Amino acid sequence: MPVPETEVFDRLRTLVAIDDAAARPPRGIDEVFTGKPLGTVPIGTAEDVAAAVARARVAQSHWAARPARERARVFHRYRSLVVAQRAALMDVIQAETGKARWAAQEEVMGLMFAARYFARVAPTLLDERRVPGAFPVLNRAFVDVRPKGVVAVIAPWNYPLVLSLGDAIPALLAGNAVILKPDSSTPFSALAGAELLYRAGLPRDLLAVVTGPGPVVGAAMVDCCDYLMFTGSSATGRTLAQRCGARLIGFSAELGGKNPMIVTDDADIGRAARAAVRACFSNAGQLCISIERIYVHRAVAEEFTEKFTAAVSAARLGAAYDNSVDIGSLISAAQLRTVTDHLTDAVAKGAQVRTGGAARPDIGPLFFEPTVLTGVTEEMVCAREETFGPLVSIYPVDSVAEAVAAANDTEYGLNASVWAGGLAEGERIARLLKTGTVCVNEGYAPAWGTTAAPMGGTGISGVGRRHGPEGLLEYTEPQSVVSTRFLNLDPPPLVPRDLWQRVLMTIARSLRLLPGR
Ligand code: NAD
């Protein structure tokens, strides 16, 4: 099992945007599969953030002055570099997260898609656009789209490359600078992604990766930057939303999920059962959009459960920097504890373990078997709380209406999956679900990969959207410029005010006859 070389981590460490890094205490990062040290990064401070923001403001004023088309060229080059360096990127991601190779590849592909999509659409979406003025001829109007300034990107550990750089890309393309804080346990994936962006020609001060604890470095970022893009738990999202509110700065928050899958009685049960393995256990279930609740029509529930548990039992759990395994490790002892606690609670209250159910220290310190439960009831913690691990529950239902009601009975609203006999029926059910994305005949990946469509959550799953035009424009401030010519709105000389008001009213009433108004 080849571990990436220590030199890689030593090189990446030098990219941390902290002036006097040697004066900061180091934080060690270990290889998840084995617990062996990989390298260290400095633990930054609020002063380090302030210094990075000051440098970023200078760099941003030059960057924003460059045409969007020119900025986009950097990201076209970036996409090519990501493709060329994909194996090295996957090695780093796997080393510090312990995920399986294919889950690391999902990140690399997500980054490629984001770079390509936003680089293509940014020049058009950011172009100044003419709009009809209040009064024809008299008013001429256009809307200019301007960057926010310096954007704070606070990222989680589960998809540490794509949920950091993937969000930095649209923010940068829109003309902003970015201060990026990776999770404390996964700095190297973000640094590896940033390294390629510098190589593609992005000035260093425009994207500053500052490492350190969330409550110190992350909080300082919210205090100094002009916009926040946060991905993480709903609890932290709430805290940061209040902080943004106090400063009246905008934010986008991509938070947790308790995502449902619905399987109807006429669905292809074999296909649904096989695909559900990926839908539930990508990155060992540590994925905000993966499935934790499966509602299956009672007529096919036992068939689905048997096929699904057989496919789950056959999945290869292991530690390897290649495609020889299906499911990797959990990332931390805290994650292992949460999964164990949710499982113990469910079993104590009567749930049945259909497959899995045990930690696997024989494979690595943080491995846990993919686990399928039936008989889960309301009083069990895992019925409503996000486990964010390899634990999924199957619930038989008597109708589609019951499945939809149960799926929607949650504070979360991130992603859902629907398996039905036909696409039209699948899409009909999708429209009844209160989630930001729905995948028909898949778990989550096509919605994630459709970069042209917005992605995000309702309820406590988030505010705002990444991807799609919304995912670029949220990093901008529109400015409307409206010029008045020939006359202004005062009555012309010798025209009585009464008559003038009647003229204006007549014009206002007839505006509906003109197109685009
Ligand atoms: P977390 O909220 O603990 O941490 C996320 C980030 O916030 C980290 O970088 C952390 O250092 C930082 N942070 C923590 N406390 C902070 C504070 N007080 N001030 C500023 N920054 C702070 O979340 P986590 O446990 O790392 O991630 C798992 C959660 O993230 C799950 O709930 C998961 O569903 C969610 N998630 C959501 C998405 C999405 O796109 N919707 C994607 C991935 C993960």
TrEMBL record:
<comment type="similarity">
    <text>Belongs to the aldehyde dehydrogenase family.</text>
</comment>
<dbReference type="InterPro" id="IPR015590">
    <property type="entry name" value="Aldehyde_DH_dom"/>
</dbReference>
<dbReference type="InterPro" id="IPR016162">
    <property type="entry name" value="Ald_DH_N"/>
</dbReference>
<feature type="domain" description="Aldehyde dehydrogenase">
    <location>
        <begin position="33"/>
        <end position="481"/>
    </location>
</feature>
<keyword id="KW-0560">Oxidoreductase</keyword>
<dbReference type="InterPro" id="IPR016163">
    <property type="entry name" value="Ald_DH_C"/>
</dbReference>
<dbReference type="InterPro" id="IPR016161">
    <property type="entry name" value="Ald_DH/histidinol_DH"/>
</dbReference>
<dbReference type="Pfam" id="PF00171">
    <property type="entry name" value="Aldedh"/>
</dbReference>
<feature type="active site">
    <location>
        <position position="254"/>
    </location>
</feature>
<dbReference type="GO" id="GO:0036243">
    <property type="term" value="F:succinate-semialdehyde dehydrogenase (NADP+) activity"/>
</dbReference>
<dbReference type="InterPro" id="IPR029510">
    <property type="entry name" value="Ald_DH_CS_GLU"/>
</dbReference>
<protein>
    <submittedName>
        <fullName>Succinic semialdehyde dehydrogenase</fullName>
        <ecNumber>1.2.1.79</ecNumber>
    </submittedName>
</protein>
